Amino acid sequence: MTSVRELTAGDWPALWPMLCAMGIGQDPPELHRRRFLDLLADPRWALLGAVDADGLAGYAAAQDHGPHLRSGDAHRTARLHDLYVRPDRRRHGVGAALLAAVSRWAAGRVRHLEWQAHRERAAPFYERLGHRGDPCPQPEYPTFLVDFGPR
Q1: Angle of helix 29-40 versus helix 12-22 axis, rounded to 10
Q2: Measured between alpha carbons, how far is 121 from 131 in angstroms, rounded to an integer?
Q3: Is 4 within 8 Å of 48 (Cβ atoms)?
Q4: What is the pTM of this model?
Q5: Which of 17, 68, 80, 127 has its CB surrounded by the most CB atoms within 10 Å?
Q6: Are 18 and 58 in contact (CB under 8 A)?
Q7: Any idea what DSSP says for residue 137?
Q8: 41-58 confidence digits (pLDDT tens)
Q9: Under CATH, what is the fold of the domain 3-116?
């Protein structure tokens, strides 16, 4: 059984290999850890972890971009930056649980949730869940959008 919860500072050791697998910049590990701790404290971010009997099975990171300068909350958008599931836990509902949790978080605060996904590596997962990607300037990364309706 998988449950999704907010990540904590204590999740760092299990999270770090997942971040590395997703691809990280040239910053030293300690800087990544400090950034993680800062984002945990930032109410504009949702850092969620999927946990099962084997521990942390995946994570998702989403950011509320806040009100728009001209339209306020009418088109407020959150971006799903990361959704990662350990390879040994894929196709067990972990990713679906994470996306559902991010969607619940976003629905309570924004009009739109958007993300890009690699056409071959990730988009099929979102399509299996009923989402449709639209072309974007990077053709290999379709854009997915959930519209929660007027705020």
Answers
A1: 110
A2: 15
A3: yes
A4: 0.95
A5: 80
A6: yes
A7: S
A8: 999 999 999 999 999 999
A9: Aminopeptidase (3.40.630)
